[in-house]
Design brief:
88 residues, mainly alpha
């Protein structure tokens, strides 16, 4: 994002005042605010959609991970039982 300081904002405001005049300046700023709201909403919707897609991709991987961990725990228990049944 560009680094705009206070002096640049004042300069932009003065130029807008000279070009648009005092009667159209509030309408112009209202339009700018509307565009910014639409942009923020679009970005929020896009981020939400990415999060949803990510969750749909992660869910099967997490289920597989849980299944593997369960299998490992069961195998450990079986090995432990067999070692207890057959001492060296």
């Amino acid at each position: 994002m560009p680094d705009i300081g206070m002096i640049e904002l004042i300069l932009i405001g003065m130029i807008a005042f000279l070009v648009l005049g005092p009667e159209r300046l509030p309408e112009f700023f209202a339009q700018i605010a509307g565009f910014m709201r639409q942009g923020r909403k679009w970005i929020y919707d896009l981020k939400s959609q990415f999060d949803l897609e990510k969750q749909q991709l992660i869910r099967p991987v997490e289920e597989m991970k849980q299944s593997i961990q369960t299998s490992i725990e069961e195998s450990k228990e079986q090995v432990k039982q067999k070692s207890e049944d057959n001492p060296p």
